[in-house]
Amino acid sequence: MLLHMAKVCAITKKGSMVAGGYSNRTRATKFNPTGMKRKYPNLQKKRIYIPELQKSMTVTISTKALKTIQKNGAFATFKKAGLI
């Protein structure tokens, strides 16, 4: 079962964000802005086995979600996120 959207974590719902890059000169004089830059979360495509259901799922999740799965277990994390 493949559950993922493009560049969005399935568990934490983390997506891309736009961050402004400003140089020190811009802050001082409001001249020559450096523009905006899109930053993406650290997403990994992982196949995770769920022992309670005796099956595995392929999901695109952030590295923070991987740590959450390690701490709370796959079944509890997926159930709370609404994937099961």
Could you describe the 3D structure shown?
This protein has helices spanning 24-29, 63-72, 74-81; strands at 2-3, 17-20, 36-39, 43-50, 55-62. The protein has 84 residues and is an alpha+beta fold. Helices cover 29% and strands 31% of the residues. The chain has one domain (2-81): Ribosomal protein L28/L24 (Ribosomal Protein L24e, Chain: T, Roll). Strands 1-5-4 form a 3-stranded mixed beta sheet. A two-stranded antiparallel sheet has the order 2-3.
Question: Which tags fit this structure?
Answer:
rod-shaped, 84 residues, alpha+beta, single chain, two-stranded antiparallel sheet, Ribosomal Protein L24e, Chain: T, 3-stranded mixed beta sheet, 3 helices
Shape: rod-shaped
Poorly predicted spans: none
Give the end-to-end Cα distance, rounded to a whole number of Å.
11 Å
Task: Kindly provide the name of the CATH class.
Answer: Mainly Beta
Strand percent estimate = 25-35%
The CATH superfamily is known as Ribosomal protein L28/L24
Mean pLDDT: 86
Structural class: alpha+beta
CATH domain fold name = Ribosomal Protein L24e, Chain: T
Written as H for each helix and E for each strand, in order along the chain, the element string is EEHEEEHH
Q: Total helix count? A: 3
Strand order of the largest sheet: 1-5-4
The biggest beta sheet is recorded as: 3 strands, mixed
Helix content: 25-40%
Q: Under the CATH scheme, which architecture would be assigned?
A: Roll
Q: What is the number of strand segments?
A: 5
Radius of gyration: 18 Å
Total separate domains:
1
